[in-house]
């Protein structure tokens, strides 16, 4: 590896760990500070933190890889995500910020569900925490896989060494610095990703010798079509990724941490501007990369490494190091967010409820740190299968959260008649539908259910119907819950 590349990466690691140390001294003395930053984030930090934790390794590896293979038909994923993110900022962000504070100052999503529906038996809390831990373990492992591939392809290290280095640095600053460290590192990482996703496609396009359309046609004529092999159903499946935003705990928890609901419009403008440019950059990287490698006879063994290939071929080692740091930033920002949310659920929704209800803040912070390490170890174990597809792992976890939590979050914020029974039915039915759709040995025309339509679509529909039907078939919520709902509306 070139000296310039090494220098860039070392500086990146030092900055991340330095932020973790700063956050450790600043906000980890109590559980609210460790897990939610004391609800004090500025709109810019919250927005870029939400974007960076959302756009994990798949934005620099998974999506460019899909574009590299299929061409413009994969663009519908990016379009669906942009629409979903905008609706998430518009519909969920302000109401969730107000609701979680008024509902006994809930600091986790399961905590919010329990307070919103007066879950005295903790059934909602337990099920939602289990969903978070199960699907986040899959999601976190996708980031670890991306880290392993990065170190293997770019640094000549073993895949396993990449897993440990990537996870080790993230665990250090997350374990000690908590939510504030995660959010501040996300802000820096978001800035790095933003620059990289402009720079790489722009330079790649400038070096093309022939018109883009003619080169792509020579690679594969199908790359120029916006309608892939799945036709209209394929477009629906791709765009349905946007439905997942309403149920992603590591994203919507950022809305809970903003210092004031009045900051939401600013956060939305910053977040959406960042996301649109990042998504366009990822799409362009895959398409331009396919054209450039074809023109120059470059063989790309793993399509998901096209960003790595272009970074090393086209840039000075010092810049290449910065671009590789961008991939690490994308990977680490999401892993850290997922580790913290999983840790929060294990601490607040299991340990505090079932083991020690009178635990001190100091004890809960310690348990939170132990949980971070435990989830990281399990994610590394799952990531040992180096043939895992980053996009496949992300899509499964994204669908699970989107179906289990998406309708539940939306309807809990907008529908006063929704009750505990409806919430539990929707969460369970959504998660089960996704798992059945992915893993059940059922085929139609020789293909699995997931190959026909993305599992989040049936999962989201089943969950929504279950919430409405069960809520209407059972008793109305208690007057206290209805009064809380009205109070939230008046505070928006």
Automatic annotation (TrEMBL):
Catalytic activity from the UniProt record: L-proline(in) + Na(+)(in) = L-proline(out) + Na(+)(out)
Subcellular localization, as worded in the UniProt entry: Cell inner membrane; Cell membrane
Pfam families documented for this protein: SSF (PF00474)
Keywords: Amino-acid transport, Cell inner membrane, Cell membrane, Ion transport, Membrane, Sodium, Sodium transport, Symport, Transmembrane, Transmembrane helix, Transport
Regions crossing the membrane: 6-24, 75-92, 123-142, 162-184, 191-208, 223-246, 272-293, 313-335, 364-384, 396-415, 422-440, 452-473
Superkingdom as given in the UniProt entry: Bacteria
Membrane topology, from the record: Multi-pass membrane protein
Keyword set includes Cytoplasm: no
Primary residence: membrane
Gene Ontology terms: cellular component: plasma membrane
One term of GO molecular function: sodium ion binding
Region forming the signal peptide: none
Any single biological process term in GO: proline transport
Keyword Transmembrane helix: yes
Family as reported in the entry's similarity comment: Belongs to the sodium:solute symporter (SSF) (TC 2.A.21) family.
Function: Catalyzes the sodium-dependent uptake of extracellular L-proline.
Name of the protein described by the UniProt record: Sodium/proline symporter
